[in-house]
Amino acid sequence: MAGEDAVFLDGVGEPDAFQRLWTPHRIAYVKGENKPESGHPDECPFCRIPTLDDVDGLIIHRGEAAYVVLNLYPYNPGHMLVCPFRHVSDYTELTADETVEVADFTKRAMTVMRGVSRPHGFNIGLNQGAAAGAGIAAHLHQHVVPRWGGDSNFLPVIGRTKTVPQLLHETRDLLAKAWVDCAEPFGGE
């Protein structure tokens, strides 16, 4: 762990002034350990996740055509993904029922997050294809990222550090309970 006066070496042995908070769990993402080698459903984590129980899979809610799961590598606490169960890569390939449920679950994810953590805003989006930034382009997934004023404060901007102050399983339990308690009706639920 870094102290205030710590000096670290960069890759070529030159001292730098950056303090570091180690997040070794992210090395799996950096190395692509959970990323499928092909676009085949047998290798797809978004096809595998629904075969797990909700706690182990970090699943917030399951519907008929889609499910909501915590992002294993969140940009912010509570970063959720809305995924169709069907292995489909393009938004235009969704059926009408899948489109409605993905949209409804996106709305509910925002409502639940507002009730749990009162974010000031959201980033919502689909990254279609690897060129557009999709880490797993073979299976469509919509990001619901809660945002707070100042969440891009000195830590990520100057300190080059991002903190996630809650364990993923704790976040999952909190959001799953709030999802059930959410009074606002959605779609066919």
What does this structure look like?
The chain has about 190 residues and is an alpha+beta fold. Helix 4 crosses helix 6. The N terminus is likely disordered.
Which structural class should the secondary elements be placed in? Answer: alpha+beta
Terminal CA distance reads: 48 Å
Mean pLDDT: 79
Oligomer: single chain
Q: Element order, helices and strands? A: EEHHHEEEHEEHH
Helix count, DSSP H or I runs of 4 or more residues: 6
Strand arrangement within the widest β-sheet reads 3-4-5-7-6
- Shape field: globular
Q: Percent of residues in beta strands? A: 15-25%
Largest sheet: 5 strands, antiparallel
Strand segment count? 7
CATH architecture: 2-Layer Sandwich
Q: How much helicity do the residues have?
A: 25-40%
Low-confidence stretches are: 1-10
Number of discrete domains: 1
CATH topology: HIT family, subunit A
Fourth-level CATH superfamily: HIT-like
CATH level-1 class:
Alpha Beta
Radius of gyration: 18 Å
Please render the helix and strand layout as text.
Layout: E1 8-9, E2 15-16, H1 27-31, H2 45-48, H3 54-57, E3 59-62, E4 66-70, E5 80-84, H4 96-117, E6 121-126, E7 142-147, H5 154-157, H6 168-181
Antiparallel strand pairs: 1-2, 3-4, 4-5, 5-7, 6-7
Helix pairs in contact: 4-6
Short account of what is shown:
The chain has 189 residues and is α+β, with helices and mostly antiparallel strands.
Any descriptors?
single chain, alpha+beta, 28% helix, disordered N terminus, 5-stranded antiparallel sheet, two-stranded antiparallel ribbon, 7 strands, HIT family, subunit A, globular, 6 helices
